[in-house]
TrEMBL record:
Transmembrane segments: 23-41, 53-70, 82-110, 122-139, 151-173
Cofactors named for this entry: [4Fe-4S] cluster
Record protein name field: Oxygen sensor histidine kinase NreB
InterPro entries named in the record: HATPase_C_sf, HATPase_dom, Sensor_HK_TwoCompSys, Sig_transdc_His_kin-like_C, Sig_transdc_His_kin_sub3_dim/P, Sig_transdc_His_kinase_ChrS
Reaction(s) the record says it catalyses: ATP + protein L-histidine = ADP + protein N-phospho-L-histidine
Described purpose of this protein according to its UniProt entry: Member of the two-component regulatory system NreB/NreC involved in the control of dissimilatory nitrate/nitrite reduction in response to oxygen. NreB functions as a direct oxygen sensor histidine kinase which is autophosphorylated, in the absence of oxygen, probably at the conserved histidine residue, and transfers its phosphate group probably to a conserved aspartate residue of NreC. NreB/NreC activates the expression of the nitrate (narGHJI) and nitrite (nir) reductase operons, as well as the putative nitrate transporter gene narT.
Primary localization class, coarse: cytoplasm
Cross-referenced Pfam families: HATPase_c, HisKA_3
Keywords: 4Fe-4S, Coiled coil, Cytoplasm, Iron, Iron-sulfur, Kinase, Membrane, Metal-binding, Transferase, Transmembrane, Transmembrane helix, Two-component regulatory system
Sample GO molecular function, one term: kinase activity
The keyword Cytoplasm is assigned to this record: yes
Record's subcellular location: Cytoplasm
SUPFAM superfamilies: ATPase domain of HSP90 chaperone/DNA topoisomerase II/histidine kinase (SSF55874)
Amino acid sequence: MAGGSLTDPVDAGQDDWHRTVPGWHLAFATLAVLTAGLVVTGDAGPPTAERRTALFVLVLLCGWYGATGARALHRDHNRLGVVYLAGAVPLSAALFAAAPSGALMSFMLYPHIWALLPLRRAIAVTVASVVSMAAVMIVRSDAYGQELPSVILVAAVALVAALVLGVWITRIIEQSRQRARLVEELAATRAELAEVSREAGALAERERLAREIHDTLAQGFTSVLLLLEAAKAGTCERDQAARAHLDQARRTAMDNLAEARALVAALPPPQLRDASLPDALGGLIERFEAETALDAGFTVTGTPRRLTPNEEVVLLRVTQEALANVRKHASGAGRLEGVLAYGTAGVTLRISDDGEGFDPGDAGTGFGIGGMRDRVTEVGGILTIGPARPSGTLLQVELPS
């Protein structure tokens, strides 16, 4: 990435280290080429055997780095890094034994040790590597022109330099990890704040709607109930039909008033508060039959089980809207059938009538149908509306498990 971003905390926090790895590859290649040049042109001793051996070991070291070390540097402490160092340390010592200029490759070996191993292991491997180099110098003191005191001094200086370099590298890597953790925590905090803000906005909107419902719909239904009571009181006892219609209107107004109050209090719909979903849907269809004089039936198949509150509310609302549509639009209908099917793959609700049907082009229009489709989509379901067989309309809702 081009710069630090809260959406990519790993890159933002580890740029200080991981971004430099390509430079380490280039440095390794540069030192390898320089070492090869010095072996060919600068080292003393029998020119053929030792130089060929040194070049062969250098090729092995480069190949081992390409196969394991280059990949290990892109990770934190890992087994691949241990495998790489298990081969790189003896190969570096062998290269130094074959040619003094092979010591150049230790400038990459020590940083690799500290980058790939935890602190204690890095110290142990660094000491072991310096000791192996000193042992080579002691064994080949004649060829290298070094005496024991000089070898000890060189080894001590090399060890101190390697430890100082290692501490510096360790601090850089640890700072990168700390920055990565801080950025991750910052990103998590920002996500939590966004969620809290969203919930606060939703709560504020719900409270606003609750006030509006209380001040408009609830008050309006209360007024309708009072008017219906007055109309019923003024109706002749003998006018049974009118009184029946007034009773139905009164029950409808009371139900809608209860719905409005439930919305204000953020409670489940009254139909689901004290009854199961099959009972609630069966009650809706039973009341529909009583109010419309249509023949209506309701069937439950499979083993009923509790759904999530949102899913049950969606199926209830879809049933209410479907019944309202049949009441208003199903010309010539004489029969309505509702089926609630519980299956292993999910729950399916089907509501069909035997009316004259509808124009398929109108199935996606209208506020009621659009609202049903939105509700079903929000809970991961599928709503389909089409012709029933042999006639009429079929509404189907499929909710996956």
